[in-house]
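notes to self, project folder thing:

trying the whole complex as one job this time. last attempt i did each chain seperately and stitching them together was a nightmare. four parts in total, labels are on each line so i dont mix them up again. if this works i'll redo the older ones the same way
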Amino acid sequence: MTALPEFRPSDPGFEARVRDSFNRQPAMHLIGARLSLVAPGHCEIELPRRAEITQQHGLIHGGVVGMIADSAAGYAAYSLFPADSTVMTVEYKLNLMAPAAGDRLVARSRVTRHGRTLTICSLDVFSWVDGAETHCATGLATMICLHGRADTPR
Amino acid sequence: MTALPEFRPSDPGFEARVRDSFNRQPAMHLIGARLSLVAPGHCEIELPRRAEITQQHGLIHGGVVGMIADSAAGYAAYSLFPADSTVMTVEYKLNLMAPAAGDRLVARSRVTRHGRTLTICSLDVFSWVDGAETHCATGLATMICLHGRADTPR
Amino acid sequence: MTALPEFRPSDPGFEARVRDSFNRQPAMHLIGARLSLVAPGHCEIELPRRAEITQQHGLIHGGVVGMIADSAAGYAAYSLFPADSTVMTVEYKLNLMAPAAGDRLVARSRVTRHGRTLTICSLDVFSWVDGAETHCATGLATMICLHGRADTPR
Amino acid sequence: MTALPEFRPSDPGFEARVRDSFNRQPAMHLIGARLSLVAPGHCEIELPRRAEITQQHGLIHGGVVGMIADSAAGYAAYSLFPADSTVMTVEYKLNLMAPAAGDRLVARSRVTRHGRTLTICSLDVFSWVDGAETHCATGLATMICLHGRADTPR
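result (full assembly):
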């Protein structure tokens, strides 16, 4: 509908910084999520279907869809943050539009607006069924940049 | 601020139905969540802190907070649904207000408005630190009642 | 990021039906909004800046931004609904990313997923300042189709 | 469900400051809204029904419901802010649960969490029909405090 903004990261080491942070998230390991793409203001997380992450209908749990969407948004934002900072989620909102029914999910997030304090990201989750992509969730997230704080436990 | 609505469940067996459905959610087992309270239009889910469900700061992952909030809302709604139905999440929105820093979380959801098709629920998540409760997240969810459909895989 | 869905309206008279409904919204006249584009699953509403619709900083009120965003989403959805139906907003969420500072606003909404009961729409509001477009708000809305009900007062 | 937080305003002149700011919002005058209550972390706005603020079904427009909800949240937050500051809406989300069908609406907002930068507010809108209150909308808003900036046009 409109041209996507192009972002220039302030930290040239953004990709290694994002990947390192993702790898220190035990919750992403627990569900089997993988960071499949990091670019300035953009992040994708893949999640293969496993029985352990389903709900009572045998579909991937809506909360798990939210987990990868929230993480993708956090890292889309964090890719633009300065090296000496960390990221926290202020809020997110997700519409679950179609069953998360496939063999794997891909959560894609893009920064819509990058500010010094707050960064807004769009979220989209796609389900792969028989080689075709279904747009199964869409959402928005607001991330905050904590300047001068390490991305590790306090 | 205003009196909470009191609900009369249409299905007297609502509690067993909700507990049975919760028990068939592998994702709740995976993170270690427990259904601690079911009442008409009300549900609470407890989650002890474990390293496996944390993020890079050592706090419980915001997406995991969303998982128990979404499930609590789904079951608060489902407690009011007829026996011959199932529940799906249309959308949810969560504000993460304080770090999920304690030994355990409690997600509480209450039905705000119960309709034939759509049911709206409030969500609140509390973190227990040193015996004191911190209100760490608040949100809203919209649930849909699928009449005449079983609460099992199709 | 991904190809937008293309929609085929079930009612060939969708544009006249949408324009007629918009014209029967006194609240849109009150703020001076104009329906600038209707296409299948797509709607744009323009709003020139006037002092009457501002807030205490002299910017267009955030709630007025929400009004045109909500209406644009309602009519993007309604363009795909059958002739014998009406539309109601279930919920909407809006991030106000930049001041609504220009001479006019344009709210654009597109249907992301069209279902028989629920239709999900994306919302974007742009502000025109000195001939340049600023993306000042982004959001999501859930609309419900009330089949067999007239789009007029009961 | 849980005790509401009690707030101590940092500015003893908070009520006059909030009322003055509200009175400088032309958009609130345009729709006929009135600031009916200001207390620390709490605000109520009343809106009598007039034909000019309705939509095509003769109900108060959902976007107008959002306008008074957004303003109530902004002023609930602003009541707790320091004298030398202003408030902006980061985002809001509203579920329209029942038609805004009565003679007047009352939007009530309470601060759920007050932080130095971000303040989270709950929103509820009630419609008065034949002397009885209907809970017609519920929502959440995130407000930002701009320290050291005047609450007037720049």
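what i see at first glance: The CA atoms of residues 122 and 140 of chain D lie 5 Å apart.
need to look closer tmrw
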